[in-house]
What we know:
Helices cover 57% and strands 7% of the residues. It is of the alpha/beta class.
Amino acid sequence: MEASQTEADGSAAQSATKRGGDGAPKPSSVKAVLVGLLIVLVLVTIMGTAYISADHAVVAHNLPWGVTAPSPLTTAVQKNISLDIHQYANQSDLENAANQAKIYGGFVPQTNTLILSVAASLRAPSVISAAYEQAAKQAGVKLQAKQINTFPSQDPEGVVPGITLFVLLLAGYLGSTFAMQRTKTAATHHRVLALLGHAVVAALVIDLLAGPILGAYPNVGSNFWKLWPEFALICFAVALLAATLQSLIGTMGTLVAIILIVFIGNPSTGGGNGVAFLPPFWQSIGVVLPPRNGLYLIRNTLYFHGNSITQPIIVLALYVLVGLVLVTILSWEKLQWWRADQDTPPDSAQRAEVINPDEEIGTAAIPPG
């Protein structure tokens, strides 16, 4: 009976310390709420700035465009559309470049033929066609158009690569973050194998859903086996990026991972419109981030016969390699001189940063842009 009374008194005393005499929350609780809301406001500001600045003005900037010879029609089009002209010997070479996702299409003045690579951009075919038709009308020339790299019936709008990419980004980031939250420690080299296993399984699940189950991409029999390791590479690269940041700066690494992967990386992919319709800043920064390279890897595998996937693989592999090295190095206690937890006793069972529940960052998924 006395023990029960003591426990009740202890609980009441503990509750009283959290509130003032009038039952109102103590100033420290109010401060914590305000700090949390301020962090959310900062994140919303960053996200809004990123997505709006990247997508609000869908105008071409140095759109890769092929020609087989100079033409007054192309000159007229360039007055209204920023083109990055690539010269080719003939129409066959031009189409081959388009099939390798090097250009968005081109113009063959010898036959007044407009070549449009549909899978390169949802917007480019209509914008380019309208500009050339206007120029041809003024010059009294009749155009003919040829569409190549068209989307299959399973994905008529070409949205599957972008959707699967976003799911893979979340799978990688959330895998690392939830592992950190459940263990209350930042990643160590022992967790790398767990993250690899998570990436392989998550990639398999997403590939099964998009292919055999939902039939969202063509040629499931052959593409399934190509996409599975590609999906795993994307997921693992993002997971190690998040794990590295969390090892470097603790819980703040989670926020930085969200900003890099979702707030900056996702809009820098160009989405369905293509990178050429992004402002120059976003065109430049996306080259080194996982999302654009992941999108190119999936899109080019599905709709460009697997061409031009070497660079995306190299970039993503570098994220895996560097992340693996850094997570391993950061597991060595002597090299963590900047971490606040170096003051912990030497007999501590685990030197990696222990996460205070009050500091845990939310892991809500951000909707794709």
